[in-house]
C-alpha cells in the first residue's frame, strides 16, 4: 500500500519534472524580436502619439516593450508573430516618411479599427487590459482627424473636367463598352446601373459620394431579412463620384471615379470569403490592381465586418 | 502565486487564440437601417425606381437621392430630347445624416426629412407633391404648365455618370 502510493508520487514527480524541463527547454526556442531604429515616427501632435503609444506601439512600432508574461513560451511565440505581422501592416515608427495624406488615412483606419473592437487585437486585450483605448483617448484621435468644422460654404468647384466627362457619356447614349474582367476572373456587370439603391454615403474626408446598389437577389433578401449570410447570387455595386461643391453649401455629383462589385457565390468564391471582388476605375472601366492579389486589399478592409458577412452597408429597410 | 500567474497568462492567450473568445461589437451587428425607412403613408415607394443622381446639402446636413421610372431614367441617361418626356415620374428622398457607425469619416442616411414627387403629363403639364414630417404627410401639392421653382430645379439635375 505505502510503496504503491510512493511509486505513484514518484511517477507524478517524474512527469512534472520532465514537463518542467520541456517547458524550460522550450524557452530557448525563441524567434528573435528586435527593435529596429525609429526612422520616421508618425507626424501628429504629442497627445495623439501618446494614445497610440499606450495602446498600439507594442505591436505597431519599433518600440516594442513586452511585459514578463509575454516573454514566456508559448505566449512569446504568439506575440512575436503578432508584432511582426502588425509592423508589416502599419508601423508608427516608419510611417512618417509617407505623404501626410497617407498618414492621416492610416489614422482614420485606426479609429475605425478601435471603434469596431478590432484593435488592439481582442486576444491581446484580454491579457493586457491596460492597452484598451478609453473613451477620452478615442476622442483625442477623432478630434484631431475631424475638428468641428467652421461654418461657411466650400468654394465652388471647377466643373470643366466633370462636364466634359458627362458630355462624352451622354452622347455615347448607353452604347456598351468592352470591359475586361478583373485579375481574379470576376466579370464586370454592366447592368449594375439599373439595380436598386440600398444606401448612400457622404465622405467629406476624401471628398467623394457613393451610391450602394443591389441586384434583385439582394433586394429580395433585404425584404425577407435574410442578410447574413447573403444568399448566393446576391450582387452589390458601390459607385463613387467626386463631390462637386456649388459654392452655396450644396454638393452635386461630380466626376465618376469607379465602380466596385461584390458578387456572392459561396462555392465559386470560397477562397475569398464567399464573394467575388472587383473594382473598375475611370470612364474606360480599367480593372484595378496588377494581379489577383488586389482582393487582399478588399478583404483586409472589409475584415472588421466579417461577422456581418463582410458587408459594411446597413441596407435601407422597406425595399419591397 | 507568481508561478500560477505566469502559467495562467500564456494559458489564457493560448485558449482564446484557439477557441476565439470573441463577442460581437454592437457596431457590426447585422441590421437594416430602419431609422431611414420611409413608412407606408406615401403614394409610391421611391426606392423601387432607379437612381438618376444624388446631392448633399452641407448647411442643412441632409443627403438626397433622385429616382426615376423607366421613361425618366432613359431620358436622363441619354439626353436625346430636351426635357423629360411625358410619362416621366421622378421622386426625391431627402434624409438627415448620421455618422456611419461602421466607418469613421462617413455619413449615411438617418430619418427621412422629405419625399417629393414630380410627374410629367402628355401636354407638358406637371404635378408636384411634397411630403414632410414623421410620419411623412403631404404638405404641398401643385399642378400646372409652368413648373414651380422647386420642380424646375429637380428637372434640371443632370444624371450621375454611370458608364
UniProtKB/TrEMBL annotation, chain A:
Keyword terms: Membrane, Transmembrane, Transmembrane helix
Superkingdom classification of source: Bacteria
Transmembrane segments: 12-29
Domain Haem-binding as annotated: residue spans: 20-145
Protein name stated in the entry: Haem-binding domain-containing protein
From TrEMBL, chain B:
Protein's name in the database: Lipoprotein
Organism whose genome encodes this protein: Granulicella mallensis
